[in-house]
Write a structure and sequence with these properties.
Blueprint: H1 17-25, H2 32-38, H3 44-57, E1 62-66, E2 69-73, E3 77-81, E4 89-93, E5 114-118, E6 121-127, H4 129-147
Antiparallel strand pairs: 1-2, 2-3, 3-4, 4-6, 5-6
């Protein structure tokens, strides 16, 4: 008969914290590649273009799926694609899932792409197709500036 271990009620497991890490690691964000492979959206090609622009802005930026959408992070999540928009590419830029005590963000926006929703949150509207491509350089500057706050 195999040996069994009996737990004492109210007693914590003797496993060290590091032994629990693999269980948490299994809960990683879903792959952005897998998400995009199954995405059914009229602006899918433009979303993939935006992904390339954001990821090329800094090697410290990665992507994943957060809030049921393609999202981007450094130390914390900072941008999420608004998939509800079916005619123009929009992203919500923020400073993470929780409001932080950040100083007011200073983000250069000479092209007027940002619509400020709060002192730490903005909606970026990029257009689609040729308009998106025309806004790419200004957008990359926004990504670079914003990502310094996360």
């Amino acid at each position: 008969m195999p040996a069994t271990t009996r737990k004492t009620p109210g007693k914590k497991s003797a496993a060290p914290e590091s032994a629990k890490a693999p269980a948490r690691a299994a809960k990683l964000e879903a792959s952005a590649d897998a998400f995009l492979a199954t995405l059914d959206h009229p602006l899918k090609a433009d979303i993939e273009t935006v992904r390339k622009v954001i990821l090329s802005a800094s090697p410290a930026i990665s992507d994943g799926v957060k809030w049921n959408s393609l999202s981007f992070r450094k130390a914390d999540w900072f941008a999420t694609v608004n998939l509800r928009s079916r005619t123009t590419i929009q992203l919500v830029f923020h400073t993470g899932a929780k409001v932080k005590d950040n100083p007011e963000l200073k983000i250069p926006d000479p092209s007027g792409l940002l619509l400020w929703l709060a002192k730490d949150r903005a909606l970026v509207t990029l257009g689609s197709g040729k308009t998106l491509k025309a806004n790419a350089k200004a957008f990359e500057a926004i990504v670079t500036a914003w990502s310094k706050y996360v």
